[in-house]
Amino acid sequence: MDESLIRRLESAVARLEALSAGSVSRELDAADVGGDTASSDPSILAYEDLISERVGRVSSAGEKIGGQVLDISKIIQQAFSAQKELLVKIKQTQKPDMTGLLEVLKPLNDVIMKALSLTEGKRSQFFNHLKAGADSLAALAWVAYTGKDCGMAMPISHVEESWQMAEFYCNKILIEYRNKDENHVEWAKSLKELYLPGLRDYVKSHYPLGPVWSTTAKISAPSSTKPPPARGPVPPPPPPLFSSETAQPSPSRPKEGMAAVFHEINSGKGVTSGLRKVTDDMKTKNRSDRSSVVSASDKRTNASATAFSKEGPPKLELQMGRKWVVENQVGRNNLLIDDCDAKQSVYVYGCKNSVLRIQGKVNNITIDKCTKMGVVFKGVVAACEIVNCNSVEVQCQGSAPTISIDNTSGCQLYLSKDSLETSITTAKSSEVNVLVPSSDSDGDYGEHALPQQYVHVYKDGIFVTTPVSHSGG
User: Fold this and answer.
1) How far is CA 203 from CA 52, 187, 295, in A?
2) Nearest CA to 256 among 244, 264, 247?
3) Which residues on adjacent β-strands are paired with residue 199?
4) Bridge-partner residues for 253, per DSSP?
5) What is the value of pTM for the model shown?
6) Beta bridge partners of 447
7) Would you say 169 and 148 are in contact if contact means Cβ atoms under 8 Å apart?
8) Residue numbers in the chain where pLDDT is lower than 50
9) Can you give the pLDDT at residue 119?
10) CB under 8 Å to 89, separation ≥6 — which residues?
11) CA distance 307 to 248
12) Distance separating alpha carbons of residues 349 and 147, to the nearest angstrom
């Protein structure tokens, strides 16, 4: 081969290598600039202010107390710092698939699991502090919201509902240490203000519809925040967050919902292989059990379905492993929650003419905006709340420290012998009757109507309030 041709080829290769090296350098510089831009974003700066002000107050109060209260305070600070790094990463990364999302959330999840581990085992004198701090961290899961079909409440609502689980233990701290130790009272108050209004207002201002992933950045490997090498094969995806198994779908852990449908379609397999052929006798026009005459019961059923569709789809599901949601159930008398524990809560909303049985002790139960609804439960750790309801019946078969009835018209409350010491609070409610087991062994209940009218008389410098008693002739 001609030597001049060889020299020309070598010169061209050298120029190409120089151009390639310059391109890689520019990509790395652009990645560094992107990281600096994300860190200086107003939402990130606002989150840093939240950490320094709100989380700083919790840490300062925890240092005055020391011991396990200081330990849980440090973990709370670690969790918020982990979420800050996560928010920065979200601004630098395109939205990953579910496996990648779980891997991105893993550092935050590990800190939350570390906090929950402190509440296990033998109870210490600071158990209420540990539970309040650990349960409150569930509010940080708002960052996992990916849309209305993800099974989570909207970010703002999620923060508020998650705090309700921790508020029970926070209130116990306030009651226990009131007029005893102001440091514990300050810690409990600063913890509440961290979430309400702190985190809630932050999410409302910057992420009301959930985290906003980058649309221009390159998708980084979920297992590392460093840029990938210029050459070499792409590493395999990491394993799922909540499983030690591989990322391949298996019969024991199938995909759920529409994700399973799209996975089946995209897999390239015969998606119609499991369908049966429709024969002539299976067609509607040839079936003897179908008629063109519409019965009155069918009309009622269609009317119920139309009314129900205005409210939303029915739900009976466990969300985030912490909260049972029962919504928009109409005419269902066999609703059942049997796989529950004392760390979970139950929220019943918008149900009509239905009966729900909860076969296990849960943390708290909320019945909201239900009509002609019956709820039977074994017991609660915190409280059972009945709000904005009409003609409901609630039966407690175990113990319940507190039962509150607010803005409700018509409530039949059945108590067991174990729940006779329950504290019942009513507000703006009418026709509230409490049935308690009689002292006889015949199993009958004695009915007691709670007063809804009161007389206020000014005596000796104060108002004296007594319920109105009616007597018939």
Assistant:
1) 17, 23, 51
2) 264
3) none
4) 250
5) 0.44
6) 435
7) no
8) 23-33, 221, 223-255, 299-309, 472-473
9) 85
10) 104, 220, 225
11) 42
12) 20
